[in-house]
Amino acid sequence: MICRFLVCLLLLSCQILLAFALTDSGDVAALNSIKSSWKNLPPNWKGADPCGNNWDGINCTNTRVTSIMLAGQLLEGSTFSDISSLTGLVELDLSNNIGLKAILPPSIQNLKNLTTLVLIGCSFFGPIPDSIGSLPRLVYLSLNSNSFTGPIPASIGNLLQLSWLDLGMNKLNGTIPISSNTAPAGLDKLLLAKHFHLSNNQLFGEIPEKLFRPDMTLIHAIFDNNKLNGAIPSSIGTVQTLEVIRFDWNSLEGPLPPSISNLTKLQELYLSNNNFSGNIPDLTGLDLLFYVDMSNNSFNASQVPEWFSSLQSLTTLMMENTKLQGPIPVDMFRLPQLETVKLSNNNLNGSLDIGNSYSSNLTVDLQNNSVTGFQQQANYTLDITLADNPICNGNGATEAFCSVAKVDSSPLPSSRCRAVSCGRDEVLSPNCQCSHPYTGILHFFSFSFSDLQNLTYYNILHGTLMSQFRARGIPVDSLNLTNPTINMYSYLEITLQVFPSGKDVFDRTSVSTIGFVLNRQPFPVDYFGPFFFIDEQYCCLSGPKKSSNVGIIVGVAIGGSFLVLLIFLAGMYALRQKRRAKEAIDKSNPFASWDPEKESGAVPQLQGAKWFSFEDLKKCTDNFSESNCVGSGGYGKVYKGSVGSEQVVAIKRAQQGSMQGAVEFKTEIELMSRIHHKNVVGLVGFCYEQGEQMLVYEYISNGTLRDCVTGKSGFRLDWNKRLRIALDAARGLSYLHELASPPIIHRDVKSTNILLDNNLNAKVADFGLSKLLGDTGKGYVTTQVKGTLGYMDPEYYMTQQLTDKSDVYSFGVVLLELMTARAPIQNGKHIVRLVHEAMGDSKDPQSLDEVIDPTLGSASKLSGIWRFVELAMSCVREAAAERPSMGEVVREIENIMEMAVPPNKQMHHHTFVETADDESPLRSYGAAETESEGFDVSYGSFPFHVHRQ
């Protein structure tokens, strides 16, 4: 008995010693080095014992640091080598810290115990070192959404335990590495790998036959949006485990290998936008196939394949522009799960018969075919489009099926809570609680459905995520999934809000754990393929903790109470006087109640904006009545009203809990108070009172450019008016970039943020997301990616480095909208690719007729159209350095307008010199006049004189 007692005592003593053991000295030195070189680290990184003191994000086993979990912590740093000294590391997750700008050093090979490396959404650059192949235990490697360059290291093939390889959304180039006699390592050696995610890089060359082997366990082969050429190797049919194949948006060619039909577990097949030829492959027997897209290839002309009607699991079939001909079999519409059929731009003919057994949510797009009849013309319930078919030229055609269907981009249903007023920047959760959610976007590489409004899919995703969070003890109250969208890369994007439970904010550990769960993805989700998560910078990471020394507090309280007692009577009089003084100050200071902590910084610094009281604006909008509401958005609503001497204004009123928030309000009011240009919407004033944030702008009567181009505003724009509008908007942006000091990057240039006044003069609006370029000398601002899908600069999207060329890219998309009247992304296809394909190599304006706005007529009759398109395409070049400046865009549009203006209104160019009040020259620039319109000169926010040279 005594011996047993002594043994137990000895074991207990050992455990106590371990519990109080100091962290390994080498690990302490490495962490302290990180602490001295990185910024925004957790405030509790104090003391000499990281393990014993439970530093946030640091997990230990005995005395060694084995895990660093710091996802989404706003970290900033330019060196990574200190991490390599933590040789006991097993897991490392630094995802969603865009302030980490470093190279991945060769010394990473020291982390021999590492199994998981997640660096998604940071700013790492340079080559991936060959030494990364020296991590024998690595299972999960994700370097997505950085700026890595150079080739894929062949040494990755040495990672024989690797299951997940994600190098997507970088700038990697070169060929796909495989093993050979001279290079024993290559991706073909990764027999345990289930995921190859290499999309959105600059990989080129052929896909090696040796890449795919029958002894592989690969389920996802994702190579889209690269520059690969040649044929798909027949060896791909030997990988029986494959479930998803993505080779879309490359330059692949030749016939598709018949061996694809051997992949009986295949669920999703993306092969669109290549140069495939030969026969459409026979996919009979692939009974698990949900999603097929072979659009925009060069297959041989053929009848509709029989296998179209045999795939019982099929939800989505996209075969646009694939030379299909003949009648459409009725059996195809009887597939039980079918949601979308897109067969536009083919030569399908005959009379369409859809039967009576189709799904109620089925969408069918048969635009631009040769269909002459419709059996169920008077009685059908699906969404069908037969525009540009012979049937729509007859007397019996109906607007219902002869018009182009509108894409439903409405958000998913939100909370049904009763009216609840949340505090500023708080959001109402689905469970009717006000809090600060952790927010970001889920980017899905693949998905097996196309009905984005079908709640069944999102309920499954919601349930899976909630169960994963709760299983790991994360205090999550609820989730919100909104705004499903297909982005420019044909990925599904869903906005995710994760709401905290028991309090209104998440702590640092919860934020990093949520990020790790989402980006490590140790779970499958039915109907959804692999994804990555990019967050918005979380508002509410905890700061330094305040002392809680009870003795000090008690002593101070006793002494303080005696002091308060002595000064109470005298203070009563002083307080009364101060109250009177404060009331007088508040009346003259509209930001007297501004809280720097809650309102994201110091009081706004304004230059001349007028303050309006809440009562003033309430009165001039008839108590913000719906009859005066002229627009709405995520920030709130816009009302029309009259102030002063009947000046008509637009009042932008932010709603509580909106996405606008204090940051955007402060940004917009500070910028707009100092901007004065005829092509930028003018700020009249503001209101900051009674919890209200309102901006008062000049009223622009003809609405947005988008509404005018599409005809929603009630009138159409001819070619000359569109050129004038393009010039106005370009001048406004050029002023922001080149004359404002410091320069301003708009960050959300789009057709709905360009407004037209009574004379159709264009004005740039909405500066809530704008950024000052500052005087850093770098030419860019590193910031979280924000903007609007379809207009967003791909280089900014991937690097988080915002430049003035980001606005140029967005403006290029607007120019293409002006010409085509199409949305930036329509039917899953980006307008840039659409116009690029239409242009071809002919330089013949008639080649643009298929994309030009029909109301403009033939492109060959539009003076300067080809130069206009070339200008737009130069603005949307992939590399920002190859795009023109906005000043160069202005000059080119002026040149194009000379071609379009009639002889009696020819433009004459003059050079002007901008000078300060003392006549000293500041800069010179060009302007144009016509005989009927006179001079049109942009001006800055400071006084100057103009001289003709």
UniProtKB/TrEMBL annotation:
What does the entry list under GO cellular component?
A: membrane
Q: Which domain of life is it from?
A: Eukaryota
Q: Which residues bind ATP?
A: K652
User: Topologically, how does it sit relative to the membrane?
Assistant: Single-pass type I membrane protein
Which keywords fit this entry according to its UniProt record? ATP-binding, Glycoprotein, Kinase, Leucine-rich repeat, Membrane, Nucleotide-binding, Receptor, Repeat, Serine/threonine-protein kinase, Signal, Transferase, Transmembrane, Transmembrane helix
Cross-referenced Gene3D superfamilies: Phosphorylase Kinase, domain 1, Ribonuclease Inhibitor, Transferase(Phosphotransferase) domain 1
Which GO-annotated molecular functions does the record name? ATP binding; protein serine/threonine kinase activity
Pfam families, alphabetized: LRR_1, LRRNT_2, PK_Tyr_Ser-Thr
Annotated SMART domains: S_TKc (SM00220)
> Known InterPro entries for this protein?
Kinase-like_dom_sf, Leu-rich_rpt, LRR_dom_sf, LRR_N_plant-typ, Prot_kinase_dom, Protein_kinase_ATP_BS, Ser-Thr/Tyr_kinase_cat_dom, Ser/Thr_kinase_AS
Signal peptide residues on this chain, from the entry's feature table = 1-21
- Protein kinase domain sequence ranges: 624-913
| PROSITE patterns, A to Z | LRR, PROTEIN_KINASE_ATP, PROTEIN_KINASE_DOM, PROTEIN_KINASE_ST
UniProt EC number: 2.7.11.1
SUPFAM superfamilies to which the protein is assigned, alphabetical: L domain-like (SSF52058), Protein kinase-like (PK-like) (SSF56112)
Task: Enumerate the transmembrane spans.
Answer: 550-575
What family, per the record?
Belongs to the protein kinase superfamily. Ser/Thr protein kinase family.
Quote the protein name from its UniProt record.
non-specific serine/threonine protein kinase
The record lists the lineage as:
Eukaryota, Viridiplantae, Streptophyta, Embryophyta, Tracheophyta
